[in-house]
Amino acid sequence: MAKKKKNKKKAMQVWKLYQVSGNKVERKNKFCSKCGPGYFLAKHKDRLTCGKCSYVEFISKK
Question: Would 55 disulfide with which of 1, 18, 48, 50, CB 3.0-4.6 Å?
Answer without folding.
Answer: 50
